[in-house]
Amino acid sequence: MSQVDATSEPEPLPDALARLYDLDLLDDPGDMDLWLALAEQAEGPILELMAGTGRVAVPLAEAGFAVTAVDLDPAMLRRAARRAAAAGEDVERRLDLVLGDVLGLELAGAGTFRLGIVPLNSMLLLRTREAQGAAWAALAAHLAPGGLAAVDAWLPDAADLARYDGRLHLEYLRRDPERGRWVTKTAAAQHDGATGTIALTTFFDEGEPGEAAVRWFRRDVVRLTSADEQRALAEAAGLAVELVAGGYDLEPLGPHDDRLIVLARKPGDRA
Ligand SMILES: C[S@@+](CC[C@H](N)C(=O)[O-])C[C@H]1O[C@@H](n2cnc3c(N)ncnc32)[C@H](O)[C@@H]1O
After folding, report:
1. Cα distances (Å, whole numbers) of residue 38 to 149, 199, 240
2. 20 CA to middle of ligand 1, Å?
3. Closest residue by CA, ligand 1 atom 13
4. Are 137 and 177 in the same domain?
5. Whose CA is nearest to atom 19 of ligand 1?
6. Per the domain annotation, does 255 fall within a domain?
7. Which of 5, 32, 172, 264 has the largest CB neighbor count within 10 A?
8. What is the pLDDT of residue 132?
9. 23 alpha carbon to ligand 1 midpoint, in Å?
């Protein structure tokens, strides 16, 4: 039985895609302990760029930290606001949700943040080296002297890239806990070595067996990067790279690691 009211208005596409983003994230990336540990050390306000539905920002606010979360998609931020409201008034008070583009970002609190983070591959959604550099520049401009920037990006290995040949793959069949419907996710990824990008086409088919499914789809381009490039972009933004790690345990990056965590500090003593 579907939990959805058949008479309800059709869901707008951006809202459906934001909801389905959270359905994807039922697979826990396992990064929250890292963000909590960095927040603990930061001793001051936190800025999250490209914060999406508040998957990271809300738990940070729940843990007692003041968080400013920036995203350019209103539907994603609406979900972040609902998530914060569900966590209680104190959490809502500690979380500032800002609708905005990280490119050229100028927040009133620039120069005051103790930690600036770009979790879970968001950096790769910025399609040029210049745009990724601008995100690093936004982190640098918003950090207080002595503040720390942390960027987390995926480094696909050769086996991953070989699979990205444009063929459609089943990603999952799972029930959406919110709407109570089955969702079948299929996706085709096409790697282009010339541009260092992966073009992703994703279909979500929602419905009960025997019913006509509602199909949503999205197209994304992911721009791949490297440890050297992210280090160079951090340095170009005036930050001093402290660590290039290969996973959420912050062990130094080694051969075959498929995750890149760069920690870089803004020079200067904290006021
Ligand atoms: C991978 S998702 C969110 C990740 C989120 N930090 C998390 O860990 O769950 C990437 C987000 O980046 C946002 N985004 C993409 N380009 C942006 C830009 N130029 N400025 C601000 N947000 C952007 C998208 O709207 C999307 O919500």
Report:
1. 10, 32, 17
2. 14
3. 50
4. no
5. 101
6. yes
7. 264
8. 98
9. 16
Identify whether residues 50 and 102 lie together within a single domain: yes
Nearest residue to 57 (alpha-carbon basis) of 26, 112, 23, 98: 98
- The reply to whether 72 and 143 lie within a common domain is yes
Question: What total of structural domains would you count in the chain?
Answer: 2
Q: Is-contact 85 101, C-beta < 8 A?
A: no
Report the nearest-CA residue for atom 6 of ligand 1. 51
Site residues for ligand 1, CB cut-off 6 Å: 50-52, 55-56, 70-73, 76, 101-103, 119-122, 125
The tally of CA atoms less than 13 A away on the side-chain side of residue 263 is 23
Which pLDDT score is estimated for 81? 98
User: Secondary structure of 222-268 in the HEC alphabet?
Assistant: EECCCHHHHHHHHHHCCCEEEEEECCCCCCECCCCCCEEEEEEECCC
Domain hosting residue 115, numbered range: 31-155+225-265
Domain containing residue 134: CATH number: 3.40.50.150
| Region 37-66 average pLDDT | 98
Q: In angstroms, what is the span from residue 51 Cα to ligand 1's centroid?
A: 5
CA 50 – ligand 1 centroid, Å:
3
Report which ligand 1 atom has the smallest distance to the Cα of 51. Answer: 6
Query: What is the band of 10 on the pLDDT scale with cuts at 50, 70, 90?
Result: confident
Looking at residues 229-255, what average pLDDT do you find? 97
User: Residue 11 is encoded by which pair of tokens?
Assistant: 């869901």
Q: pLDDT (tens digit, 9 = 90+) per residue, 123-151?
A: 999 999 999 999 999 999 999 999 999 99
252 and 134: one domain? yes
Q: pLDDT (tens digit, 9 = 90+) per residue, 153-166?
A: 999 988 889 999 99
Model pTM greater than 0.90? Answer: yes
Identify the band that residue 48 occupies on the pLDDT scale cut at 50, 70 and 90: very high
